Amino acid sequence: MTPQRRLPRRQRFSGQSFNRMLPNLMTLLGLCIGLSSIRFAMDGKFGTAVIALAVSMVIDGLDGRLARILKATSRFGAEFDSLSDFLCFGIAPALIIYMWSLAPWGGIGFLPPLMFASAMALRLARFNAELDSAPKAAFAYNFFAGVPAPAGAAVALFPLFVGLEADEHHAYWLHALVAFPLFSGAVLVAVALLCVSTLPVWSFKNFKIPTAGVLPMLLGVVVLAALIFADPFLAGALLGITYIGMLPFSLRSYHKLARQAEERRAASETVEL
Length: 273
Prior knowledge:
This protein is mainly α. The chain is built from eleven helices and two strands. It has one domain (18-272).
């Protein structure tokens, strides 16, 4: 009886699955759109530039969540996301504001963009360093240290949002006011300081909505979406004002939670004694 010949095994395809690559592909897409916003600004299409930057912000908010859902988080993805954030939210807004408002002041006008980009680099480097630091208190994970990069970019573009809205309504006096280099430069510097500060800012990642507030929140999202589609520049300006107005409440919430955590720790130590 002749022995049966074994068929050779098929060699399995080696490599990463598309699911694990998808978050990085989204990050790359956001980077390309953010870089394209600079090109639009160079062509004088500032409205298109801020819309492109807004799209990159949306993508930045989705890629990390998608990575966690697909269990595709990695150190490479985190570093790649930070580099993309630096370009899209550190370099792009600074150059857009420079070309729109600060260029007539030459080298002096370039100082605020330099400060903004440098502050954003420091803020992202600190964020990456905190990934390897000692664990924080449980409540502290609901807060960022300083204004995060996407929010900082959005607030830095506030003068441009107002200027574009003023152009649509022929309010040229308002455009001249917000486009004055001293005003737009001061906004850039102020946002840069907020980004590198240690101000506790709500992250909204683990933000819990009370049951009674779910329906009002959903209705608010509908109104916001309608406003964005109807008048995106006005929506951008209002969101920037709202975010800045939120910061004192965020600071108060942090101190309240820190005080409660300290009281619980003191009470547990008393019980142990």
